[in-house]
Specification:
By secondary structure, this protein is mainly α. Among the domains are: about 80 residues, no CATH class; about 110 residues, Serine Threonine Protein Phosphatase 5, Tetratricopeptide repeat. Helix 6 runs antiparallel to helix 7 and helix 8 packs antiparallel against helix 9. It is globular. The two termini are about 55 Å apart.
Amino acid sequence: MQKLLELVSSINKNKTKSVSIIEHGQSDGTKLYQLYELISDGKVTCDEEAFAQLYPGSTNKNPYYKLKHELRERLYNTAFFVDAKRSKLSSRREAMVQCQYYHALSWMLGLLGARKNADTLTQKTLKIAGQYEFVHEYLSALTRLSNTLTVEGRENELQKVNEEIITYTEILRKQVLCNIYLKNIQVQYTKNRSSKEYIVKEISGYLQKLEALPESPDTLRSYYVYNILKLYALMAEHKYEQAIEVGSPIRERVKNYRYLDRVAFYGISVNLTACYIAMKRYEEGAAVLDDLLVQLKAVKSSFNWFKAKEMSFMLSIHSRRYDVSRAVFLEVMSSPRFSRMPEYIQETWRIFAAYKEILVKSGRLSEQKVKGKRTFRLRRYLNNVPTFSKDKRGLNVPILLSQIVLLLQTKGYDELIDRFEALAKYRDRYLNPEVNYRSNIFLRMVLEIVKRNFERAEVERKTAKLYGLLTEAPTDVMNQSYDQEIIPYEDLWEIMLDTL
């Protein structure tokens, strides 16, 4: 049922209407149409609900399964009738839909013997694929064209096309390798946010392999991947000034290219924003992020939109624009698509909710509830440790710190002492003093709170030197690290001292 729910949602979202799916007006009474309507209107979400509605009192599910199969096949056919112009796709995605349509149709008509029509569609494919650098589609269309030129005996034209095929084979090879190397790096950070000292060496190896390839023209994609890998390596080493120098030209080229690759623009923008935050250049970071959110407006509530909002929340917290952070939080919580996001995305925002609560309890932010949403529940948050902590990595440090601060604010001293002991063990076991420099210092400061019996003057005296070391080191806000600072440690320390 989940596949069918997704399919109906996609067909409806992309404004597709065709008699090849359901014959509107003529077949409204059929069970096929009834099943489509039930799913489309959100009246059923599982097989049991749909079966009960369509076949009340029956125990034989075979007709229902046949019905599901038929609806799915018709919807597959309908995907070819997607109205790209009305489906609010970006210009490049709209072009890709059109390109794939022409490409598939040209091969199909060629196989059916309609060669002249197939050749016309091949030329249309080449035009779109060339303009938007759809390398795989362009190479495939060239192959079809070479078949036609061979059959027609057009030797001179064939030689030119074959030379182009060789060139594009190298371009495709480079682009495929770029994508493989990029995914190999990105997948390591998807759910596991722990620091990886080896990542710089791994990236260096990938860059060397790309540089050793035969020379070929750069597509925007290969240019972007090669340079974003450089950026990742610099950020992993906390070389944020150098990362900004590398990242700014990438962003400008991506933004001003002849087409907008929204994925590339997103990737460079969020990483560049993180560098600006680390260097406390908040206005520049806000400008980059605002520009990105303008581009994501057409695909609001997409995965990238939620990830961009994470960065927006972080930036507003770090720049102490707490009212803005609340507005971002409420916008995300109010999104109907939030519950459909991957669990680790939802859990990140649950942790953000805890830090928002810390700001509220400290008097730095006024409370404003999300309509239809439960208020923050401290006990539930203290007892439910998110996914990231299962293997002692991920967002463990911000989780542990938020729990300690909330207990300090609510004067839960007995429970606090137990958590301080756990924090000390965690620091000794998992935090590398060099890799997790700021967190290591901060946790040493936090542990002094219990040692000095919650006496503010004593705590401040004992941590003065550590605080000086903390302020000299830059903040890391990207997910290269499992000691991510949601509220900068300097600000969080001030909040903690106010509770003593």
